[in-house]
Specification:
The complex is a heterodimer of chains A (257) and B (268). Chain A has 257 residues and is an alpha/beta fold. Chain A has a single domain, classed as Rossmann fold (3-Layer(aba) Sandwich), CATH 3.40.50.300. Helices cover 34% and strands 24% of the residues of chain A. In chain A, helix 5 links the parallel strand 6 and strand 7 (187-192). The longest helix of chain A is centred in the last third of the chain and has 18 residues, at 167-184. Chain A is globular. The two termini of chain A are 35 Å apart. Chain B is mainly α and 268 residues long. Chain B folds into 2 domains: 1-40; 55-267, MetI-like fold (Orthogonal Bundle), CATH 1.10.3720. Chain B has 11 helices and no strands. Chain B has helices at residues 2-36, 48-60, 63-95, 97-110, 119-126, 130-154, 158-166, 171-208, 214-223, 227-255, 257-260. In chain B, helix 3 packs parallel to helix 6 (130-154), helix 3 runs antiparallel to helix 8 and helix 3 (63-95) packs across helix 9. The chains are: A alpha/beta (257), B mainly alpha (268). At the A-B interface, loops of A face helix 7 and helix 8 of B. The structure holds adenosine-5'-triphosphate and magnesium ion (MG). The site of magnesium ion has 3 residues of chain A, from helix 1.
């Protein structure tokens, strides 16, 4: 599903005078494209995703997802994975994932097969009855991913999904997301603080800057998949994006990386 | 590692139990020694032996059980209605901010009034029979349930509600699967506070106007100058209060099972 963001502006009214969180946002995302969004804290990345999924309304401008407005889109079609796993502490792994099913007309037996399939997909077989507080951080995020994927959404919005995880778990889950993309060609928008992650996953990296949140630059990432983080191509984009953030005359980029 | 760990838990429990009975045993021992040496005025503080005799008597003639049962039934009546009213109203007030605004002043003014201050009014309005006592217990149970339910409902995590909205879930599902479970720990705090106030209220009501019940038993013992009976009444109130709270704690651990897996929280 294609996604179009046109001249979007978002103002939150905290006191009488509102604060402009997003300004002049224009984005064109093609069907099956993975777009990474990077930007400093508070520049409106989460707000952008909330606008896309209809949790917030735009102040000005238009968002269209296959000719429809965000609030008209069926929740089986667009899914969102949050930074925190946001699991229900009173529901078992099984019940948490089952809760993700947005379709209402699904027969019991099919439901059960579906839930079990996704439990297996995220490698949590044997943990069906565990409660969220009995899981590690990485396992929790897997449950949360399964809960979203169970609808096979055509568009997947990810808000710093792996931010709280250690490097190993993170890389594993990134590869799992790419596997899913290979199979389903899901359109993905992934917000991240991690420039390597942005380059590794995205067909496109969008750099935002704050106050008000605008799109500073878009980079098309021309590296064939599977990508290697240690390749020269990768390093080329890494340097370009770091320069975009920290300016041309930064003393030693290698050092920061 | 694992086996020594799992072994330590029951050990800890036994130690905790032993530590917890040290003080009561000491007090009783001191009491017995003091009584033998005439440290206390026996017309106020009877000897443990006298209490024992009195205890067998009231058990045998069934009068203690009768008083306890009457008080208990009153508590159950008033508590069930009061807690139900408190929780239901609390859910509504917690959910709808307009209702919250409508009730905020009323609740603010009425809440600080101790239920016991209402006894004269209730007697005037409802007579000295069962109704005035149940009304008092109702009030005693109602407030903690109401206030804690409101808090619990308002505390529901907006991030979890967002998850449900993104999944296209309706209002009823959000209430049933998110708001109510998040509020349950707080509601339970209210229920536990409520039953202990209800239990205090019944004793107070019976002391003022009654011819049966544990509160009455205490007043009767004073009038008849039977300190042993008076002590039995007081201790019975304490023990029943403890049993009720243990039962509520047991229920809480069963119903709010997910709090147990967080470890630590051992109830209060
Ligand atoms: N509901 C709201 N009401 C008022 N202001 C808000 C609201 N949500 C977000 N904001 C403000 O909008 C700005 C952008 O917030 P947002 O959460 O989109 O940032 P972000 O780019 O996702 O930051 P981070 O990387 O730290 O997650 C912040 O200044 C925040 O205070
Ligand atoms: Mg954010």
């Amino acid at each position: 599903m294609a996604l179009e963001v046109k001249n979007v502006r978002k103002v939150f009214s905290i006191n009488k005078d509102g604060i402009e969180v997003l300004k002049d946002i224009n984005l064109n995302i093609k069907d099956g494209e993975i777009v990474s969004v990077v930007g400093s804290s508070g520049c409106g990345k989460s707000t952008l995703l909330k606008l896309l999924i209809g949790l917030e309304d735009v102040t000005e401008g238009d968002i269209t997802i296959n000719e429809k407005k965000p609030y008209e889109i069926d929740s089986t079609e667009v899914g969102m994975i949050f930074q925190e796993a946001r699991l229900f502490p009173w529901k078992s792994v099984y019940k948490n994932i089952e809760f993700g099913i947005a379709r209402k007309d699904i027969p019991k037996k099919e439901k059960k097969e579906l839930v079990n399939h996704y439990i297996e997909l995220v490698g949590l077989k044997g943990f069906e009855n565990a409660l969220p507080d009995q899981l590690s951080g990485g396992m929790k995020q897997r449950v949360s991913i399964a809960r979203t994927l169970i609808n096979k959404p055509k568009i997947l919005l990810l808000d710093e999904p792996f931010g709280a995880l250690d490097a190993f778990t993170k890389i594993n889950l990134q590869n799992e997301m790419l596997n899913i993309w290979e199979k389903e060609k899901t359109t993905m928008i992934i917000v991240t603080h991690d420039i390597d992650e942005a380059i590794y996953l995205g067909h496109k990296v969008v750099v935002m800057s704050p106050k008000p949140g605008i799109i500073q630059k878009e980079f098309k990432i021309d590296i064939s998949r599977p990508r290697s983080r240690t390749s020269d191509d990768f390093d080329y984009y890494r340097k370009k994006i770091y320069k975009e953030f920290f300016g041309e005359n930064i003393a030693n980029i290698e050092y920061i990386i | 590692m694992k086996s020594s760990n799992s072994k330590r838990i029951p050990d800890n429990r036994i130690t905790a139990f032993i530590i917890s009975i040290i003080l009561p045993v000491l007090i009783i021992a001191l009491w017995a020694v003091g009584s033998d040496n005439n440290w206390f005025n026996q017309s106020i503080i009877p000897t443990p032996h006298k209490i024992n005799l009195q205890f067998s008597k009231v058990i045998e003639d069934g009068s203690l059980l009768k008083h306890i049962t009457v008080s208990f039934v009153r508590v159950i009546y008033g508590y069930v209605i009061g807690a139900l009213a408190g929780v239901v109203l609390g859910i509504l007030v917690g959910l709808f901010s307009k209702l919250d605004q409508a009730f905020i002043l009323l609740i603010g003014v009425l809440r600080p009034i101790p239920p016991i201050a209402c006894i004269p009014l209730f007697i005037l309005a409802l007579g000295i029979g069962e109704d005035s006592k149940i009304a008092l217990i109702f009030i005693g149970a109602f407030w903690p349930c109401l206030l804690n339910t409101i808090t619990g409902i308002k505390q529901a995590d907006s991030k979890l509600i967002e998850v449900a909205k993104v999944l296209g879930k309706g209002k009823f599902i959000i209430l049933k699967d998110i708001i109510l479970p998040s509020a349950l720990p707080s509601i339970f705090t209210g229920l536990r506070l409520g039953i202990s106030t209800a239990w205090s209220c019944v004793v107070a009501a019976e002391m003022i106007a009654s011819s049966v019940g544990v509160g009455y038993l205490i007043m009767y013992a004073r009038e008849m100058s039977k300190p042993a009976l008076l002590f039995i009444g007081i201790i019975a109130i304490g023990i029943i209060g403890l049993l009720i709270d243990l039962f509520m704690q047991f229920l809480q651990d069963k119903i709010i099972f997910w709090e147990l897996s967080r470890g630590g929280k051992n109830g209060t």
